[in-house]
Design goal:
mainly alpha; 0% strand
Length: 231
């Protein structure tokens, strides 16, 4: 089969369009309760926060911790930039530092518990920190940042993986039934045929090709023009 008989650029553009449509369908799942697919990955953030608030999640937490988790969850499902979400989480945890929480926070961040308790009490009353206390608080803040960053990075990776997987399932489904719509075979002969498996392959390729399909199609079109001019 020659290059002239197969418009590779058009095929790539069509596959990319199928991938784009599949991602749009995945995005539509956000209307489901609790944020739908947007909620995927938040469990990693809750897991990271277990270091500061053991055994507490959005389902069983109460009071200030419940409000903190709800705020972080709202930022997560809304798609707020990760840097902003991390900064918000770090600030909210620092605000919860006081005499009652100092012991658990010190254990989570491996800093001096007695010193951190004093820091928490001073911060609550607005008292000025001593240089040594400032150093301990800086270490505490750095450890909090590392814990938060780990949770959000794992959460983002899980979200990306699941959305790509869901988009691939949509693309394969659309590819198979789209092929059935244009195939000359009847349904009973189509399923299991080479045409059906071609639809599966197209759907499988649609998700990874969607972000780059336009560039690839443009590059192939430019190559074809260059070949024509060369002749």
């Amino acid at each position: 089969m020659s290059f002239e008989t197969v418009n590779v650029g058009s095929a790539l553009a069509a596959i990319g369009a199928l991938g784009t449509a599949s991602f749009a369908l995945v995005d539509a799942l956000k209307i489901l309760p609790n944020g739908g697919i947007s909620n995927v990955g938040f469990v990693c953030i809750e897991g990271a926060l277990q270091a500061f608030f053991p055994d507490q999640t959005r389902r069983n937490a109460g009071g200030a911790v419940k409000r903190l988790l709800d705020e972080l969850h709202g930022n997560w499902i809304s798609g707020r930039p990760l840097l902003e979400q991390k900064a918000m989480a770090r600030s909210l945890i620092a605000l919860r530092l006081n005499g009652a929480t100092a012991a658990q926070f010190a254990q989570a961040t491996d800093v001096d518990g007695a010193m951190l308790k004093t820091i928490g009490e001073k911060m609550a009353s607005g008292a000025r920190l001593e240089p040594a206390e400032t150093n301990v608080f800086a270490r505490f803040d750095l450890e909090v940042s590392a814990i938060i960053d780990d949770g959000y990075q794992h959460a983002d990776q899980r979200y990306q993986n699941w959305t790509k997987f869901a988009a691939m399932l949509f693309a394969i489904t659309l590819g198979v039934f789209g092929g059935a719509a244009i195939c000359t075979l009847d349904f009973s002969h189509y399923f299991g045929s080479a045409d059906m498996w071609l639809g599966v392959i197209v759907g499988f390729l649609a998700t990874p090709l969607a972000p780059v399909s336009k560039d690839l199609a443009s590059a192939l079109a430019s190559l074809k023009v260059a070949q024509t001019l060369k002749r």
